[in-house]
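As practice, study what follows.
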Amino acid sequence: MRITRVHSRVVDLPLPAPFHPAWARGRNQTNVLLVLVSVETDAGLIGHSAAHAGLEAAITVERFISPYWIGQDPTGVEPLSAVLRDAEILGPPAYFMEIALWDIIGKQAGLPVYKLWGGAQNQVAAYCATAELRSPEQRVEDIHLMLDQGYRAVKLRFHHDDVRRDLGVVEAIRKAVGNRIEIMIDANQAGIEPGLTAHRIWGFQRALAVARELEQLDVLWLEEPLPRYDYAGLARLREKLDGIKIAGGEDNHGIHEFKLLIDRGCFDILQPDALLSEGIFQLRKVAAMAEAAHLEIAPHTWGNGIGLLANLHLAASTPNCTWLEFPHDPPSGFTASSRDQMLRETLSIDAQGLVAVPDRPGFGFILDEDRISHYTVAEFG
């Protein structure tokens, strides 16, 4: 079996309502932008993947990856993944491409990918990942709806200049529902969208003070409390805390960076993303290193349902995976249905807050080709 074509489509899907993510410095996000990649073979098998990116990723695939992949055996994942690492020198990360290879391999084997990788579990606990900043009253109302829908955990964003406003949201939730829901906090200090204003940079003392407040509120983890390369600060912060976990890693790239995070003792929970951090099977290697160090894995995922589904397989195959991020923040424009609108099925949770892994071969992508075609703005390959 050989790769005969790498086809990329830039797809610009509209959101149904306004959406103001906390990390975007006041911007109203109006769309879900992705690059949908299809890797075709002479055996008739096609593997799919998608980047949480736009034209820049499609050009990277066309110029720096396709010329080296076409004619190759798609089951030779390791040498083809090495091309992705080298390509990052010349363009944006294209690690999402490895997903398409495993999609082909799973279809060839007639098995879902997570079962090829050991099938640690067939369903994963999902936490509702919110994105907007809202009043304590609104978030309490949101939490009641989440509990009714089956969610047992929620992630909130800390982005106010006065952190007491952020803490007030957590205090209001605890007062309203007690410990009926786990709470995670994301400070997004490892990376936000570019801009000159509207972002309060945390130093060590601020991160420590916030973490100690969150310990008293029984918060499960504090995510990205310091810049991503402040290894010493992250390790020092973790050492000073015993009632809350420190999580991060979504903005780190390459196995070598995750090894450094583990060796330096930066995190209790690593959060790599199969679209951004490394090839999806390469992250199985990261998970194994974390398991040996008695650390947890909780994949980051944001942007589109294809990425979520791929990270779900990664999570389900990983014995030390505790949670899966599940982006959903109604009544904003970014909900499960808008996130997954390029698919014909929306991923959902059950009454216990678990998301089941589809049992279809490969990653189980069922593309909504009509919708994708309607919103395609550029094609390559």
Q: What stands out?
A: The chain has a mean pLDDT of 97.
